[in-house]
Design goal:
The complex is a heterodimer of chains A (254) and B (430). Chain A is an alpha/beta fold and 254 residues long. Chain A has helices at residues 35-44, 61-68, 75-86, 126-135, 140-148, 165-177, 182-204, 220-230, 243-253, and strands at residues 2-8, 12-19, 22-30, 53-57, 92-96, 101-106, 112-117, 210-213, 234-235.
Chain lengths: 254, 430
């Protein structure tokens, strides 16, 4: 059976078309101002190999439920399923998405047994990273590379303390004004994000194996900091941002 | 509303333009959240009516009561004994504090990071939107949390009618004797304000009225243990909210009538959801009217809220007043003893609350507990950690939420609650 999962996130819509567990299409587009149309287009383009069943997830999932009569699951359940499919030994998922960060623990069958999510504000999320990259004049792709090789990135004397994106930005502006090199500031920003994630991890616990999911898992500096702080290896799939869409597709099949 | 109250609102000094705006928003919210529910009991018609007249008929009643010489006492807390207010023929009203109203005005007096409930009671007054506060002759504060304590100083400067009761924070011998004295002082204050003497007969009569109200609420709570629940959590929350400002005798009659209907529903196996639907207990900070946010999210996600371990909920009616007294002094002893059975997080230690969470979870057959703390409500935010440990120990899923009255985190909360319900169901099926 051909099935599809669609993950309507705050920044990107991710679409996975699968058949008998094999991924046929995996596509990502900006969410923009008309996500419903983007979703329709992603689905329509699969014709004539259209999915027989679709499950939607992510922030915009209700759009699909209301306008497309498509069943929905939360991105927490979806990303857990996707991570388990790619890494069968997965027991913990750290997912840093556009507007929130989640740490999910899985039981030995792969079912969600607990989770923590950041409270309301955007600090410690992908959106925060984007804003900070822009403040320092980096593209989002080069941001993680800029400081990944810094050996002092964990022991860096510079700290970003603010819990709020707006205040953190002014903290960063202050550091730049003091003449601190921007890669050093970049390292501090990455470290502050991982600091926030670690407090969520401490509440849920981190059982092996740990999977790093969401678009931010592509950021090499975040990945290495997370692994160093945990003192454990962290596994990242080739397309970490697609795991929730994959999980939704797998639910559509079952 | 059935008639035009503009004249009355204007005479009590409301900001008419802002007030019209508030009523429009409230009416729309009520339509969207309440009137759209399916399988509502017929007995909710009365409460729908009460809400539609929240600033109309009820205000007119109180206005008339004042004209006949009665005094209106505004309160914010279940520790303040309603029995004494009724014993001096006063009208007791829980004041408006459940909407994001007048926050800009409130932030001229209190920090931005003050809990939403405190900001709201200041905001309602400062923006001239609460007819109840305008009609009060005395506003009774209490030293529960630090935020309220300091806010009452400011509220006193603004209104000139605040009286603060000193609530102890430990339930030892000294705390009990202090609170007993505070209740006595409050009784004296009420006698002085109204010129009415509290007699044993009056106090007994008022105790019966308030106990009858508590019994009706206990009855409603017990009926929610049925599967399926005969009433939605939203409707039950509303009834609890209305209990703070409706006429207590009429409220009791109407709630009991509703309970008769709910009993018939249970017999017929009818309810608001399918049998076996997920059941959630909500525990934590009070939800003042019209704060329906979390219930709306939980029930909108397909679960039923079966209980509120909250001041607007079980904490308000769990224990009855012992009516076995023959003098006012004895009555005051009983009032003091009863109120100190209330398990507010401002007390230390507060282990009774943990026991009560477990007791309610079992009695109401909740399959999950959502701990609700208003942001910056430190006592409940702190107790959430102990509550989690306690609920974990009985193998029931637990979700901790901190939020306020704004709608900006609706998406995030919907995801968290949704994932929590998925987790609950997975466990139930396992």
């Amino acid at each position: 059976m051909r099935v599809a999962g669609i993950d309507i996130g705050s920044r990107y819509i991710k679409f996975v078309l699968a058949e008998e567990g094999q991924i046929i299409v995996a596509e990502k587009r900006e969410t923009g101002h008309d996500p419903l149309n983007t979703c329709r287009d992603l689905i329509d383009r699969t014709a004539p190999a259209s999915p027989e069943r679709i499950v939607a997830t992510g922030y915009g999932r209700y759009l699909m439920e209301v306008h497309g009569d498509i069943p929905t699951i939360t991105e927490i359940k979806a990303v857990a399923r996707g991570a388990k499919a790619v890494f069968s030994s997965c027991r913990t998922v750290v997912d840093i998405g556009g507007q929130d960060t989640k740490v999910i623990s899985l039981d030995d069958k792969g079912m969600v047994s607990g989770f923590e999510m950041n409270d309301r504000c955007a600090a410690g999320t992908g959106r925060f990273l984007e804003i900070m990259a822009r403040t320092l004049g980096y593209s989002i792709e080069e941001f993680g590379v800029s400081c990944e090789s810094r050996e002092d990135k964990m022991t860096n004397a510079i700290k970003i303390n603010s819990m709020c994106t707006v205040f953190a930005e002014s903290e960063v502006v202050g550091l730049i004004a003091k003449g601190i090199p921007r890669d050093e500031v970049a390292a501090a920003i990455h470290d502050s994000i991982i600091g926030r994630v670690m407090s969520l991890i401490r509440r849920v616990g981190a059982n092996d194996d740990i999977i790093f999911a969401g678009g931010c898992a592509r950021n090499a500096c975040l990945a290495s900091l997370l692994s160093e702080r945990l003192q454990k290896p962290v596994h990242i799939s080739e397309t970490p941002e697609m795991l929730a869409a994959l999980g939704a597709a797998l639910y559509a099949a079952s | 509303m059935a008639k035009d109250y503009t004249q009355m609102w204007s005479s009590i000094g409301l900001n008419l333009k802002g007030h019209d705006g508030l009523l429009t928003v409230l009416t729309e919210a009520y339509k969207g959240i309440y009137l759209s529910q399916k399988n509502r009991p017929k007995g909710m018609d009365y409460f729908d009516f009460v809400i539609s007249e929240v600033h109309g008929l009820r205000i007119e009643e109180i206005f008339e009561a004042k004209k006949s010489g009665k005094k209106v006492i505004g309160t914010f807390c279940v520790y303040v004994p309603e029995e004494l207010v009724l014993a001096v023929d006063g009208v007791c009203i829980g004041l408006c504090a459940g909407a994001d109203v007048g926050a800009d005005e409130a932030e001229k007096y209190v920090p931005r990071n003050t809990c939403a409930l405190i900001k709201a009671f200041l905001g309602f007054k400062l923006a001239g939107l609460c007819p109840y506060v305008e009609l009060t002759d005395l506003i009774v504060g209490e030293t529960t949390c630090d935020g309220k304590k300091k806010a009452y100083e400011i509220f006193g400067e603004i209104t000139n009618k605040v009286y603060v009761m000193e609530l102890p924070h430990k339930k030892g011998v000294d705390g009990r004797s202090m609170w007993r004295n505070e209740i006595k002082r409050f009784a004296d204050k009420l006698e002085e304000l109204t010129g009415n003497k509290i007699t044993p007969e009056k106090l007994l009569e008022s105790s019966r009225i308030v106990n009858a109200k508590r019994k009706a609420l206990q009855r409603l709570s017990a009926l929610r243990a049925a599967d399926p629940s005969p009433i939605s959590g939203l409707d039950a929350l509303l009834i609890n909210q209305v209990s703070f400002y409706d006429d207590p005798i009429r409220f009791t009659v109407k709630t009991n009538e509703l309970c008769d209907e709910l009993e018939a529903r249970i017999k017929a196996g009818a309810g608001v959801a399918a049998k076996g639907s997920p059941r959630v207990l909500i525990s934590g900070s009070p939800m003042a009217i019209p704060n329906w946010k979390l219930h709306a999210i939980v029930e909108g996600s397909g679960a039923t809220v079966v209980g509120e371990e909250s001041c607007v909920g079980e904490r308000n009616f769990r224990t009855l007043l012992d009516e076995n007294f023959s003098s006012v002094e004895q009555g005051i002893d009983k009032l003091s003893e009863r109120s100190l059975t209330v398990d507010c997080a401002c007390f230390t230690p507060n282990t009774e609350r943990l026991d009560n969470i477990v007791e309610m979870t079992k009695r109401l057959k909740a399959q999950g507990v959502i701990h609700y703390a208003l942001q910056f409500c430190t006592p409940y935010m702190m107790e959430a950690f102990k509550a989690k440990k306690t609920v974990d120990a009985i193998g029931v899923p637990f979700l901790r939420i901190e939020t306020d009255y704004s709608m900006e985190d609706m998406g995030q909360l919907t995801t968290r609650v949704g994932a929590f319900l998925e987790m609950m169901q997975t466990r139930a099926n396992a």
